[in-house]
Amino acid sequence: MGDKVKGTLVIIGGAEDKDGPCEILGRFLLLAGGKEARLAVITTATESPQEVGREYSRLFYRLGAADVFHLDVPDRAAACSEDALRLLDKATGVFLTGGDQLRLTSILGGTPLAGALHAALARGAVIAGTSAGASAMSATMIVEGADESAPRRSIINMAPGLGFLQEVVVDQHFAQRGRIGRLLAAIAENPFILGFGLDEDTALICDPAGQVTVVGSGACTVVDGISIKKSNISVSARDEPLALTHVTLHVLPRGFTFDLKSREPGEFGSGEKGCR
Fold it and tell me: Among 16, 43, 137, 236, who pairs with 232 as Cys (CB 3.0-4.6 Å)?
């Protein structure tokens, strides 16, 4: 089975708080070294890289980072740049912004920069991603799909992600956009993987041992298909509602944990905000 997580990850469901306590971004900064953190902000997923890069740079400096550098990687040539690799080599934390996850993976996939991200995780750097950056964390990702729909084969498209997280698929803006149907469809196609649906301003902190902790103001919906007994995914028409029985579902707000290896949630903790 191998390791489920390649290092420390902060997976954010999008629209994280940027004006108040900034619980999620502050937790990422703390994990990346606090006042000694050197952060790389990668804006490949967005079509407004300069604006988004400036926004997160200002935020992380305000929260106390020692250094923040914007890596504008608009194409595969830039993902092979020696300058970008040198900057990334100095980072204690990497932040992948939102936008389009297929843009992110199609530009970074198989490049020296993608390899450098995996190397950064292996040496102890923390990688965070919000929205599209969150979806791209896993080995398999949802590229697009219909919101507020019953699960059907036709409502999702999937593609390879960046591979920091194994045997998991992540969806974001989950409750706000009614995405339970598309996560169920993803699990129907791949019942051995876990589906994590992250609400806005909600994050998962994943440690290298496969322990996951929920932080933020919303919840994480976990869909586990390993127990499915009946499914018509292989015989249904593309637009026909799926039949799925004995799906396991957990709804986990702040402070709850989940073990990726045992596939079991943990009991509510001491009430602290953030990971224990």
Answer: 236
Task: Give pLDDT, residue 170.
Answer: 98
Could you tell me the CATH number of the domain that includes residue 132?
A: 3.40.50.880
The one catalytic residue among 16, 23, 189, 200? 200
In the residue annotation, 200 being an active-site residue is answered as yes
Per-residue pLDDT band for 276 (boundaries 50, 70, 90) equals very low
17-63 pLDDT per residue, tens: 999 999 999 999 999 999 999 999 999 999 999 999 999 999 999 99
Q: Do residues 65 and 26 lie in contact, with contact meaning Cβ atoms separated by under 8 Å?
A: no
- Pick the catalytic residue: 16, 23, 149, 173? 173
CA dist list (Å): 141 to 33, 196, 242: 29, 11, 20
DSSP string, 221-257: EEEE-TT--EE-TTTS-TTSBPPEES-EEEEEETT-E
Q: Catalytic: which of 131, 138, 149, 231?
A: 131
Active site residue 70: no
Whole-angstrom distance, CA of residue 267 vs CA of residue 114: 36
The answer for 68, left when phi > 0, alpha when psi is -120 to 50, beta otherwise, is beta
- Residue 131 domain flag: yes
The reply to whether 193 falls in a domain is no
